Amino acid sequence: MVTRGQGALRTLMVLGCLMSSLCPAAGEEPEGLSENKIKAVYLYYFATFMDWPPGSLDNDSHEIVIGILGEDPFGSILDDTVRGKMVQRRSLTVKRFQSVQEARQSQILFISPSEQDQLVHILKVLGDAPVLTVGDGRFAALGGQIAFQREEKRVRFEINAEAVKRAGLKMSAQLLKLGRIVGDSSP
Amino acid sequence: MSVRTRLILGSVISSGTALVIVGSVIASYELAQLRRGLVSRMSVQAEVVGTNSLSAILFNDSGSAGKTLSALEADTHVTGVALYGDDGQLFASYSRDLQESFEPVLADAAVGHDFQADRLLVRRAVMFDEKPVGTVLIVSDLLEISEARSRSVTVLVVLLLASLLVALVIWSWLQRDISKPLLDLAQTAQRVSQLKDFSTRVPGDRPDEIGELIHAFNEMLDEINIQQTELKSAHDGLEQRVEQRTAQLKSANDEIEAFSYSVSHDLRAPLRSIDGFSQALLEDYQERLDDTGQDYLRRIRAGCQRMGMLIDDLLGLARLTRQEMRCETVDVSDLAAHVAEELKSRDSGRQVEFRIQSGLVAQADAALLRIALENLLGNASKFTRDRPDARIEVGSMPSDKEMVFYVKDNGAGFDMSYANKLFGAFQRLHSQKEFEGTGVGLATVQRIIRRHEGRVWAEGRLGQGASFYFTLQRDGRANEEKDHPTGGRQP
Which residues of A have a CB under 8 Å from any CB of B? Predict the structure, then answer.
């Protein structure tokens, strides 16, 4: 059982950490976090609710790679977000890819809206590779696994559970229950 | 309160107190256990809710969090649960039948639990990456505890009553062993004291204190029995001895009286012959005797006459004690007046004032009382002879038990230091020349009054008169059947 004193202290410390890591700099967007910042954090969170097949992780570098394919919308936000973070005792690394082939080595791959036209091709190249693909808009319906959706001021996401399953990944029920589940054939 | 009631009451009180103490301790321990149990159960619930809500917090999905929270509906004691974000803002909440309204901002973020009047608050942090990202607050009612409390109170009361009943039954059975012999003992003691039957014994032979008590009681009765027997035999012996002594005394008394009577009687014959021959000498040989011889003979005759009077008085005194008494109501005033008249007529030359109180009555033998009054009034008359204003009073003094009479004169009186000699036979305080007499008068008075079971005493001062007091029975107790003609009885 956690005593009151420890709990309060911990809460304070944590609030401090969150302020520095999650909160935007003063004056940037006073009403809340920017959409990109939220997406960056979500990418990090996705990592925590995923299980990759044992052989797919690089045991030498001990890292989980979050890849960005195409034009990078985050700038340094994503790097700042995952800096120092550990998931499944692996450090998170952000890598930017220009080719799909290279991007196969990442565990989570954010496919930039700039690659919208190549999407079918990209997904085809990736095939059943154990990569959690994340995109925007109707991405999930087109065969991607998770798609961010802007709803008012909130960012929600769709999950194509079949696609996740096809890639051999296991997604936590906690994550599944949050997303809107869609299928390949969804319009 | 009887011993029986006390014993039962004592046992019931002691066992009841013990039960209440033990019951309260067990109940309060159980209650503490229940509270601990409730806290730990709610903590687990909070932990589970926190874990299940983690993703919802992270992805800012309060709808999903609400669903997770409402899973606690299954626990009927949970009245509400709230999820606060890391900024302390209310993120999601569930309230059973809208019982709880949660504050929009968490006032106390500290984890732990808090018992309030009728609810329990449990707070748990939701951790992500070893950092808290929110707080779960579960509110539970205390029905579980209050139900358990009332249940244990009911059980305790039922248990208490049942065991008191059992204790009562056991004790009323046990106490019979103690109080029954005590009651028997008390009953026997009462019977012994009422019927004076010391031969009764309490039955029962026990190896305990009550047995000792019974034994001691029986021994005491034995002792009383023995002492009573001894006392009775001593008393009987004493009675016998008293009877013996009385008989001896009576025969001795009779002998003395018979002796003095016969002596007095027999003394008369020689005295008569001395007197007679002295008279013959004086008459027949007058001319041959000179004056001195004649004077001697006259003196002899005077002596003889005086001795004759003494013998008469002595015989009279003896007769007094032998005479049978007949008590009746006597008018003492009347009797005294008759005696006074007689005295006046006998000595007509004198002027004596008699003051006799009227209405004096007593229980007495009239003849004997008359003799006593004759002596007392005669004495008074004699010793006032030299006074021109002679006065003799007869009266009575108030007294509760008996009648006290007095005969008072203003005559020669006497010295109080001789007062004890006054009533002795032949005792005289004055010479024959001063006042003639034999010294038997007051002895006679004393003997008569004593036969009436009364007392006689005198007061006086030389030259200032004398008072003679005597008492008589007021209610006629000195009656015939009580009176033996033995005389000389001391009151």
Answer: 1-5, 7-8, 10-11, 13-15, 17-18, 42, 45, 48-49, 85-86, 154, 156-157, 172, 174-175, 177-178
Express each pLDDT in A81-114 by its tens digit: 999 888 888 899 999 998 888 888 899 999 998 8
Q: Is B317 on the interface with A (CB under 8 A)?
A: no
Q: Is the domain of B308 the same as that of B377?
A: no
Q: Is B480 among the domain residues?
A: yes
State pLDDT tens for residues B195-254. Answer: 888 788 888 778 888 888 888 988 998 998 899 899 999 999 999 999 999 999 888 888
Q: How far apart are CA B180 and CA B206, in angstroms?
A: 13
What is the interface size between A and B, counted as CB pairs within 8 Å?
69
Q: What is the mean pLDDT of residues A33-54?
A: 89
Instruction: Based on the fold, state whether residues B314 and B347 are members of the same structural domain.
Output: no
Domain for residue B318, yes or no? yes
Look-up: residue for tokens 């003992």? B185
**Which pLDDT value is given to residue B453?**
87
pLDDT tens digits along B281-297:
989 998 888 999 999 99
- Quote the domain boundaries for residue B361: 325-491
Give the whole-angstrom CA distance, residue B454 versus residue B448.
Answer: 9
Asked if B221 reaches chain A (Cβ–Cβ under 8 Å), the answer is no
Say which residue the tokens 């097949």 belong to: A53
ipTM surpasses 0.85 = no
3-class DSSP assignment, residue A70: coil
- In terms of CA atoms, which chain B residue is nearest residue A88? B129
Final residue of a structural domain among B112, B145, B165: B165
Q: Which residues contact B181 (CB under 8 A, 6 or more apart)?
A: B202, B204, B206, B210, B214
Q: Tell me whether B48 touches chain A (CB under 8 Å).
A: no
Q: Does the residue B314 lie in any domain?
A: yes
Q: Are residues B340 and B408 in the same domain?
A: yes
Rounded CA gap, A158 and A34, in Å? 20
Q: Do B408 and B289 fall into the same domain?
A: no
The model carries a pTM of 0.51
The minimal CB distance from A15 to the residues B43, B67, B86 is found for B86
